[in-house]
Automatic annotation (TrEMBL):
Residues 35-160, 173-309 form the EamA domain. The lineage of its organism: Bacteria, Pseudomonadati, Pseudomonadota, Gammaproteobacteria, Pseudomonadales. The keyword Cell membrane does not apply. Keywords: Membrane, Transmembrane, Transmembrane helix. It is a multi-pass membrane protein. This is DMT family transporter. Belongs to the EamA transporter family. PANTHER family: EAMA DOMAIN-CONTAINING PROTEIN (PTHR32322:SF2), INNER MEMBRANE TRANSPORTER (PTHR32322).
Amino acid sequence: MNQTSKTAQACTPAIASQPTPAGRLWTVPLPLLELALIVAWSSGFVGARFSIDYAPALLVVFWRCVVVTLVLLPFVAGQLRRASPRTLLRHTGIGVLAMAGYLGGVIQGIALGVPAGLAALFADLLPLGMALLAAAVLRQRQGWRVWAGLATGLAGVVLATQGALAWGHAPWWAYGLPLLGMLSLAVATLWQKHSQAGPTLGLLPNLWLQCCVSALAFGFAQGWQGSLWPVPNTGFGLSVLWTAGLSTLGGYGLYWLCLRRATPARVASVLYLSPALTLLWAAYLFSEPLAWSMLLGTLVSGGGVWMVVRAEREPQGGEA
């Protein structure tokens, strides 16, 4: 009974610090949140594919961040005013890395000619990249079961997406941009996880701040190349709303929420399942063909995720 009371008291500040919707999400079973994360995260690649027919990719991402910033501002203004400058500065840095760095690297690589499938595969190296950074920089060791699960999950991704992989005609250095984007998100994830010990922002203020600083970064990048004025057509509007709602509020919001309840290795490994769902999105919306290798690869990736989850329940599994 005493232990239960202590646990409840330990969880109370985390829930109380969140706005009401986030506090309710805190009670949802973690596997359900992870399932929603897979759906929302995969929507970002679909939104990017849809948007390229209507507007420059950076322009869509800029307005995506602007829309989220404007929508969330009334709900987070009070919490932002109460936060210390040090806390705001820390989360600003995390936001630049997590959103501007990750999306900028992947999108700019595709814009320079890196095939979307290959760019997505580089982005899907996130779990391994994060584990390697944690081991090399933070001196955190992973158990061999976690490494085996991460490698198995990646093998499943390669198998599921092999039909969409091809070398493009981009400059050789452009292929490094999606990798840099992946590493940027990996650093932001580890920074966010390890900053939770001190004063931190709630889920929505954190997301607002990330979108705000990313809007400035993308606005500068797009303004350097052309106009920031929105394109007056339905496709552009749908692209912005799709990516702002599903990919940003849904994808990044669920990513950070899951990260508060699980280890970085587990949360990142779950994203191994997003490429297969992305292909299903593409088949339904764009009539792209499917292959049996996608189903087999998904099963392999699912096995890798299961290995990571099971290993982290054991003492030798370690934590990222």
